[in-house]
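Box S1 | Example of a co-folding query
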Amino acid sequence: MKTILRGEYGERALDPRREPMHELISTILSQRTTHADEEAAYHELRGLGDWDAIIAAPTAQVAHAIRRSNYPDSKAPRIQQTLMAIRDSPSGYDLDFLRDLPVKDAVKWLTDLPGVGIKTASLVLLFNYHRPVFPVDTHVHRVTTRVGAIPKMGEQAAHRALLKVLPSDPPFLYELHVNLLRHGQRVCSWTSPKCSVCVLRERCDAYALFDGKVPSWKE
Ligand code: SF4
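Box S1 (continued) | Returned holo structure for iron/sulfur cluster
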């Protein structure tokens, strides 16, 4: 599957796109939010000052700053709580110790933070620290389930299930993640998968099962 997707969407080098704290907070902002709105919300949030200043700001002001992100009133206190927990940890805002912790412990440290789930933790660990984890967002989840790489299950469980069938190779995992995401956005959409032009159709369980007329995705 990775080779087919590479032929369609190209090779992807594993380079951190942004520094770890940026990745972490942006991923919280990205939940149910477009990329453009996530970036705008992050930019305005950082306009409040450094991380300490964001913690000290009134929560309503933080919510206003991130209003381009969906659910700002629930995300604002979570972001402040997350920042507080990181500030009070032994390494403060420097997350580089995650590079050397056993993967299991690194995942646990991140997911123990308020507002940080397995997807956010996996993105930070794979993108920033090149650890062998596999972030599963809604697109990756939908495509891998439809093709039959994993049985139907929730997104959280899919993280573990996919790791069991994929090589423990960060560059491989990164490229597959990015290209599955792209495939889910461009071809294998929620409501109308374009199976007739899909490069995965010959190996897609849903395509075979529904004879090319794959119905809308329902979780
Ligand atoms: Fe998705 Fe259809 Fe492609 Fe299967 S054949 S991966 S359902 S677009």
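The mean pLDDT is 93. The chain has two domains: 2-11+135-211, 20-128.
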